Amino acid sequence: MTQPTTAPSPAKSKQKKDARDIRADALKIANSIKNEGQTPAETKAIANGIQRGMEMFLRQQSEKTRDLDKRTKKVKQLANQLAQQKADDDEDDIVVIQQQSPLPWILLAASWILFITAGTLHFLR
After folding, report:
1. Is residue 26 a contact partner of residue 50, using CB atoms and an 8 Å limit?
2. In whole angstroms, how far apart are CA 56 and each of 37, 67, 106?
3. Cα separation of 75 and 69, whole Å?
4. Which segments of the chain does DSSP mark as H helices, in order?
5. Which tens digits make up the pLDDT trace of 27-85?
6. How far apart are the first and last CA of the chain?
7. Closest to 49 measured CA to CA, from 28, 75, 30
8. Residues near 72 by Cβ (< 8 Å), separated by ≥ 6?
9. For the whole model, what pTM was predicted?
10. Pairwise CA distance, residues 119 & 14, whole Å
């Protein structure tokens, strides 16, 4: 019986490729710093140590990137909240302006009526 083959997802194949690249790079570095009389097992152990170090470094870098992305997202959310609050505050100001008291207009009209009647009475004498 044959088993159905499924194509690996692009993310997984990239991770595998990165791991293969890291392994090859670690082996190159280990061979370049190889001392005289060093056994292949020792070279492989050195390459494994270099590979672990490279993987740890990449993990730390991806953690830093995730943290930075989270902080950026949080700052954007705060900026959006502040903009929304400012827009809400502006709307409240407009509403307050529209709900003015008619008292100043009444006083203005009353004062003009008084001036006109006083002037008319003064003119009639």
Report:
1. yes
2. 29, 16, 79
3. 10
4. 10-32, 40-98, 103-124
5. 999 999 888 899 999 999 999 999 999 999 999 999 999 999 999 999 999 999 998 88
6. 126
7. 30
8. none
9. 0.51
10. 95
Token pair of 39 as six digits: 């056994």
**Contact assessment for residue 25 and residue 54, using Cβ atoms and an 8 Å cutoff:** yes
Q: How many Å separate Cα 119 from the centre of its chain?
A: 71
Q: Does residue 47 contact residue 30 with C-beta atoms inside 8 Å?
A: yes
Find where tokens 């006109």 sit: 116
Q: Is the pLDDT of residue 1 over 50?
A: no
Residue 3 tokens, joined: 């088993």
Q: Are the C-beta atoms of residues 46 and 33 closer than 8 Å to each other?
A: yes
Confidence (pLDDT) at 20: 84
